[in-house]
């Protein structure tokens, strides 16, 4: 039976996708503002097994700088140029829509196409990851994938059946040409492929997480973590933070907890690992969440600073990543050259 989303579900959805962002993925508030203005509620969302498995499908996402996206807000059809290019290349029309990334800003992205196309509740990550070669369809090497982004001035860059590293390099370059962010579309697969090659029910998970957080955010940190189905890792104050000199684009924040422990939060654009007193206690693809101690709002990586009081907890990783060692290798800290950060 399809999931029916109402306008008053939007705050919970946004909060849930912020939690799943693991400190990244961009703020869902931009997509929330767009949906507040343009969506025709209620919105019907289908399970993967509720649609014709042979229906062509396209996954959408915002890529590039989320800060630039907040400065230059999207129009009402940010994915139209990329979807049109993908469908023209493949010779199909009317694709079902899912999300590339079921977290942060992009968790809400498919809902912007409601009313135009059927929405299916599946995505290519189940949390936030920084790189396009971490999309599940790419990780599983589905043949004939096609991806496109606008390049500005009416142009579109399209990549077909490329190596994963080419997908990342070419489309990131095209995104820069578009002004720093763009609406991405990935096609060349069908709804039935999502059963094995995607993370299901991300919208349902985000809605449940968001509702639980909004209801339990004033409880003790341990009770809040339990309400979210997670584990409390520590409560305390950030005492130091800065670049990790041994690894490029890596930040490390040190936290002194109320229990006297020292936590190290290792991050890139998302939180990658937590080390307690020299022992790794959580690492990607586990979802590491840092909350403001007062408001209990999820914090992004760039919002952390010395003197800030925070709550650190972990949420279970999507089971899809652990189902295959090759998938897991694409999501582990070693993927970014950070050895020795796998949790025991």
Describe the structure.
- The chain is α+β, with helices and mostly antiparallel strands and 344 residues long.
- The protein folds into 2 domains: 3-202, CV3147-like domain (CV3147-like fold); 220-336, Beta Barrel (CV3147-like), CATH 2.40.390.
- It is built from 12 helices and 16 strands.
- The chain has helices at 10-20, 29-38, 66-71, 80-90, 104-107, 136-139, 164-177, 194-197, 202-216, 221-227, 319-322, 325-331; strands at 3-5, 43-46, 56-64, 96-99, 119-123, 146-152, 155-160, 181-190, 199-200, 231-243, 251-257, 262-267, 271-276, 279-283, 287-292, 309-315.
- The strands form 2 sheets. Strands 1, 2, 3, 4, 5, 6, 7, 8 and 9 form a 9-stranded mixed beta sheet that branches. Strands 14-13-12-11-10-16-15 form a 7-stranded antiparallel beta sheet.
- Strand 12 (262-267) and strand 13 form a beta hairpin.
- Helix 1 (10-20) packs across helix 9.
- The longest helix is centred in the middle third of the chain and has 15 residues, at 202-216.
- The protein is globular.
- The chain starts with a strand and ends in a 13-residue tail after the last helix.
